[in-house]
Amino acid sequence: MIGTPLTLYNSLTRATAPFVPIDPGNVRVYSCGPTVYHYAHVGNLRAYVFTDTLSRVLTWKGWPLTHVINITDVGHLTSDADVGDDKMEAAARASGRDIWEISRHYADAFKRNLADLNIRTPTRFPLATDHVAEMIEWGQAIEAKHCYLLDDGLYFDVTTVPDYGALAGAADDAAAGRIEAVAGKRHPQDFAIWRTTPPGETRQMEWDSPWGRGAPGWHLECSVMSRKYLGASFDIHTGGIDHREIHHPNEIAQNQAYCGCADTGATFWMHNNFLVDRTGKMSKSSGETLTLDVLVARGFHPLSYRLMCLQAHYRSELEFSWENLAAAQVRLKRLVHTVGALRDRSMPGGAPVATYVEQLDAAVSDDLNTARALPVLDAMLADKKRSPSDRLATLVEFDAVLGLDLLDLTRASLRVCPATASITADEVEARLVERREARAARDFPRSDAIRDELATAGVEVMDGDPLGWDWKVTL
Ligand code: AMP
Ligand code: ZN
Fold it and tell me: Does residue 25 sit in the same domain as residue 98?
């Protein structure tokens, strides 16, 4: 076990507290997953860079881990409360595609995004629609004491559990203000356990239930799947900060109703703050969504985005801008260059440098402070008193936690050409080989001609660049 005690911020108590696992032999974490009616935007992906950091830190510190990320393929309405259309049904109607096909397509795309960001595959990716029978059973178990029936479904009465909304805390009133009224609801925060399909309508996804044909409410899936795969009481439940106001208080209420006790279901409730985009491209429902593929099409490597996330604390708001991303990419290139130089000079058999491992441990054990760990990484790589082999052995520890893939990333893999470029990276490299030959033969007119030709294609040749980047795209 790496020495510094781990402390984590618990949204439930609004305080940082030592993390003590329920079972040190199996730490259990549940992360609310994506709603797969569209590609994930980069804000969504920040949530999974955060959970990956959490899972990496737990594993690195020596705890075996079971990590579940669910896939929401039913029930999430266009508002987090109970108003609006089901996001999946709306996407299917708008595109004329089969809803199951849509779900598969975007779930696969999400998994590819995770892989591109070097986010480790969780133990399980359960699908909400595979658990409808269990959701119905849960509804039946809590119905008598906690629910009431309206024309459009079965609703949970939030006054039947102690301290409803304690998680949302001070934000409670604000959240309540955002919940639009559903006719007949006893309290504004009451939420649907089951939504009955209105007479005369059919949905692509619907099931028979004791409350009529329809679909489960969104909050229920996470109570059911977390309990099924992780047990009644597990260690950590995560989500974006928006979930602190409605989705997670509702999960907690369902868990308390089901167990007939005050247990919220998890010891720690953790929330990442938002990635914000002043240009308004973050929403999946707005026209041009800022996806990871959009970043790559602009010439950015996915791990530059990961580094941009790690530069901020997960509980701080992070502003997305192309400038921030470009700065992160320069930093990543610098790291890759430094590691490449160390690799050229290293010998087998290095050993991790304890002082740097301790500083890394201190940073990430302080509520996952990756922003503090990054300068330690810089200092370690630059420490000439340590042999290149020892520095590379220390890098193994940093990479296990930060997941920047610095041991394998090469300069070639970082050369992402924008989709709009009229020339491929291989073509640029080939032209540069010709140019070097021309210069070696002192054929300067030819060397200049190649340079100009590349400039026309949007590529700037960088002779003598200190980091050895021979060229960059200027589009
Ligand atoms: P969704 O696909 O809407 O269910 O969201 C998936 C995850 O992304 C949830 O944990 C959200 O809380 C989180 N999330 C949504 N928007 C953002 C954002 N702009 N920044 C960070 N996390 C977000
Ligand atoms: Zn959830």
Answer: yes
Query: pTM for the whole thing?
Result: 0.91
Q: Say what percent of the chain tops pLDDT 90.
A: 72
Q: Give me ligand 2 centre to Cα 222, in Å.
A: 5
With b for 16 or more beta-carbon neighbours within 10 A and e for fewer, the 195-218 pattern comes to bbbeeeeebbbbbebebbebbbbb
What's 116's domain CATH number? 3.40.50.620
Residue 194 Cβ contacting ligand 1 at under 6 Å: no
- In this structure, the residue with its CA closest to atom 8 of ligand 1 is 44
The predicted structure's pLDDT at residue 171 = 47
Q: Nearest C-alpha to atom 15 of ligand 1 is from which residue?
A: 44
What would the two tokens of residue 84 be? 């609006």
**Cβ neighbours, 10 Å, residue 170:** 7
Do the domain assignments include residue 449? Answer: yes
Q: How far apart (Å, rounded) are the C-alpha atoms in residues 270 and 466?
A: 42
| Average pLDDT over every residue of 54-78 | 92
For the segment 101-110, the average pLDDT, to the nearest whole number, is 94
CA–CA distance, 61 with 333 (Å, rounded to integer): 28
Domain that holds residue 339: 298-402
Measure the N-to-C terminal CA separation of the chain; round to a whole number of Å: 48
Q: Give the separation between CA 326 and CA 306, rounded to whole angstroms.
A: 12
For residue 173, is pLDDT > 90? no
Give the model confidence (pLDDT) of 389-448 as tens digits.
999 999 999 999 999 999 999 887 887 777 777 888 888 888 988 999 999 999 999 999
Q: Is the CB of 38 under 6 A from ligand 1?
A: no
240 touches ligand 1 (CB under 6 Å): yes
Evaluate: CB of 239 within 6 angstroms of ligand 1: yes
Q: Mean per-residue pLDDT for 276-298? A: 80
Of 172, 473, 76, 148, nearest to 296 by C-alpha is: 473
Same domain for 368 and 222? no
Asked if residue 90 and residue 167 are part of one domain, the reply reads: yes
Name residues whose C-beta falls within 8 Å of residue 226's C-beta, 6 or more positions apart in sequence. Answer: 30, 68, 234, 237, 251, 265, 266
Nearest alpha-carbon partner for 109 in 312, 289, 299: 289
CA 53 – CA 119 distance, rounded (Å): 9
Q: Which CATH number is 360's domain given?
A: 1.20.120
368 pLDDT above the threshold of 80: yes
* Residue ID of nearest Cα to ligand 1 atom 9: 240
pLDDT value, residue 418: 77
Query: Both 110 and 233 in a single domain?
Result: yes
Tokens at 19, concatenated: 């993390």
Q: What is the token pair recorded at 322?
A: 């192309």
